[in-house]
Amino acid sequence: MLKYTIFVIMKRNIYKSLLAWKNSKDRKPLVLYGARQVGKTYILKEFGKNEFKNVLYLNFDANKELQKYFADDISPKRIIDSLKVLFNQEINTNDTLIIFDEIQECQRAKDSLKYFNEDAPEYYIAAAGSFLGIAGGKFPVGQVDKLTLFPLSFFEFLEATNNEILLKNLPSENNWNSGINALATEKLKQYFYVGGMPEAVKAYAETGDLLLVRQIQENILSSYKEDFFKHIKGSDIPKVRMLWDSIPVHLAKEKKKFVYKEIKQGGRAAEFENALDWLVNTGLVYKISKTGEAKLPLIAYEERDSFKLYMHDTGLLAASAKLDIKTFFNSEHDVFREFKGAIAEQFVLQELKPQNFPIAFWANSTGKAEVDFVIQYEDKIIPIEVKSGENIKAKSLGVYLEKYSPKIAIRTSLSNYEKRESLIDIPLYLLGDLKGIISA
Q: Are residues 122 and 239 in the same domain?
């Protein structure tokens, strides 16, 4: 078991959304989604400690006895009366946060959220748990508010590792500084290796020990594989394992489109459909489909049989691919180019996901031109070309621009921030503020 002291307090961007939920007049019970070990329990407890006088924390996995309090009558009054006795304290509607953690272990607790919403909306109820996106994790339709927590973004990483001043002074269009740019690039390399899993970030912030970070990442990957055996039907376990293990292999190729036949001879979509859905719905894997046309709405032109798969964290991808420290920090290597630029591409997607853009990738009919990502924002479809290092030649993006003449196009690399008519060159480390940049 790993032993180290953690003093770092994680500041998460989702905190603002939690405050908005608390202050909403139309508040419903909240369900916090997110992959395993991204910090859901931590942020709810911190939120409760900071914003409420009292917190009632129920963990349905750690304490199976709690389930009997939801076995029969699940009316809010009966549940609240039972919890008052169980915890020996009053539960006031204006100053108590009730956390239902690992709620997937108690179906009746999930069902009770409907009645809290309809009959007792004055109570603050927040639920979280593992695997909430799969079939057994469904909640009453229209009866809950939903938020999703992702691994720490690069901006959150900078804050957690005591680089707040750098974060506040990152170079921008009107304030370019080559020295700060070099420092931000070095921190970005650190993030590529450490990733955004809270335990790995905390260990790095506290100790600076990259070997410890890798050990934590390998433990997380191992725990995920243990989950496969615990939560998946026997016949699907090897399929999930094959899909999961194949992601670094596919991302290492020039053309990163997922091909079933490359993970199993004669492999077909129908054979792996349930396994893929499980990985996507648990938040462990991002599935980015091809769009046939870069038009509104993006989802209407999605070609779901043509897609790419990514992991949910750069650090876990690097650990899964067995990329060692030298690849990231030795001057003989260029991590932005190594692994066919897969880490950079994974990073871009990881920065886009928390900003809630609809996302796809685009390729022309011949397949010879491909843009890494296209996003929908307001009334625009915006292409995003990811370039490794400072080489910003982008032939595929040129084909896209000629075909669609978009109002905004993004090219992201290590090059300087620059605007040329509709094309904006943005350093990779600024993508966490993409909404602000394209709204300016």
A: no
**What is the pTM (predicted TM-score) of this model?**
0.94
Q: Which of 350, 401, 346, 355 is nearest to 378 (CA)?
A: 355
Could you tell me which residues are beta bridge partners of residue 289? 307
Burial class of residue 300, CB neighbours in 10 A (0-12, 13-18, 19+): exposed
Full strand arrangement of the beta sheet holding 423-427 = 302-311, 285-291, 359-363, 370-377, 380-386, 409-413, 423-427, 418-420
Q: How far apart are CA 229 and CA 235, in angstroms?
A: 10
Which residue bears the tokens 């396994």? 275
Total count of domains within the chain:
2
Q: Is the domain of 289 the same as that of 385?
A: yes
Q: Which of 163-167, 173-177, 370-374 has the lowest mean pLDDT?
A: 173-177
Distance of CA 144 to the CA centre of its chain: 21
Q: Do both 144 and 233 map to the same domain?
A: no
Average pLDDT of the segment spanning 248-255: 90
Bridge partners, residue 427, by sequence: 413
Per the CB < 8 A criterion, the answer to whether 290 and 302 are in contact is yes
Same domain, 299 and 434: yes
**Beta strands 359-363 and 370-377: pairing type?**
antiparallel
Range of the domain at 93: 14-148
Residues 240 and 126 in one domain: no
20-68 tens-digit pLDDT: 999 999 999 999 999 999 999 999 999 999 999 999 999 999 999 999 9
Q: Which residue matches tokens 């190729």? A: 253
What amino acid occupies position 376? Answer: Q
For residue 236, is it within any domain? yes
Confidence bin at 332 (pLDDT 50/70/90): low
